[in-house]
């Protein structure tokens, strides 16, 4: 195993970096998109509620690999040429955003309804009440499930391996095929995933206790 690390550390580190980069981009993007579609789902306008609901149901109920392959194959064919990393990141972002939308919606629903009415009666607009009163409380409630979504996002980033995204799993597959050291390679890959997910898990627990 030491020999494997010594000879293959460069591709492994490149894969680790691409996994971290993909996860950060997808995390930020999915939070923004997920929150946006949450607001559409609870909008006072029926057509916006329908749009939000359709988006969430579609991306929640299609496998991540199918979404990723669709972007990897369809976008270059009809829109613009993109690489596997970009296609995988887009697919992961949209897939995760649907789950985040439902998580945030549950948090908003847990906030006492009278607070929105009170904000409106005090002269706030609906959007101001959501921004300054409801959403801050909702996010405090949903931190634990959001933390789980973020950790799942990191693990789900391995889908890039199927579209030549040069992520950690992709590099692991190449090394295992080239060296025929399957078990040591995937053991190292698993350890490198833990390097990402364990600190995130402990931080989310700390944040949950701090905000409790």
UniProtKB/TrEMBL annotation:
What is the annotated localization of this protein? Answer: Cell membrane
| InterPro entries registered for this protein in UniProt | AA_ABC_transptr_permease_3TM, ArtM/GltK/GlnP/TcyL/YhdX-like, MetI-like, MetI-like_sf
Please verify whether the record's keywords include Thylakoid. no
List where the protein spans the membrane: 16-40, 61-79, 183-203
Pfam families named among the record's database cross-references: BPD_transp_1
Q: Does the keyword Membrane apply?
A: yes
Q: Which NCBIfam families match?
A: HEQRo_perm_3TM
Give the family per the record.
Answer: Belongs to the binding-protein-dependent transport system permease family.
Which PANTHER family does the record cross-reference, listed alphabetically? Answer: GLUTAMINE ABC TRANSPORTER PERMEASE PROTEIN GLNM-RELATED (PTHR30614:SF7), MEMBRANE COMPONENT OF AMINO ACID ABC TRANSPORTER (PTHR30614)
How is this protein named in the record?
Answer: Amino acid ABC transporter permease
């Amino acid at each position: 195993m030491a020999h494997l690390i010594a000879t293959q550390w460069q591709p492994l580190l490149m894969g680790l970096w691409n996994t971290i980069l993909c996860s950060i981009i997808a995390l930020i993007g999915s939070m923004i998109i997920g929150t946006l579609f949450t607001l559409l789902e609870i909008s006072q306008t029926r057509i916006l509620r329908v749009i939000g609901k359709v988006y969430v149901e579609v991306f929640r109920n299609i496998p991540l690999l199918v979404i990723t392959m669709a972007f990897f194959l369809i976008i270059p064919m009809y829109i613009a040429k993109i690489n596997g990393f970009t296609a995988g990141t887009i697919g992961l972002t949209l897939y995760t955003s649907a789950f985040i939308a439902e998580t945030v919606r549950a948090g908003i629903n847990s906030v006492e309804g009278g607070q929105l009415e009170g904000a409106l009666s005090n002269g706030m607009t609906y959007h101001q009440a959501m921004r300054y009163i409801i959403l801050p409380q909702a996010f405090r409630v949903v931190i634990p499930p959001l933390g789980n979504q973020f950790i799942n996002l990191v693990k789900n980033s391995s889908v890039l391996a199927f579209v030549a995204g040069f992520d950690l799993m992709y590099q692991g597959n190449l090394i295992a095929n080239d060296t025929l050291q399957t078990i040591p390679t995937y053991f190292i890959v698993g350890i490198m995933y833990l390097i990402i997910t364990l600190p995130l898990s402990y931080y989310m627990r700390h944040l949950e206790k701090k905000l409790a």
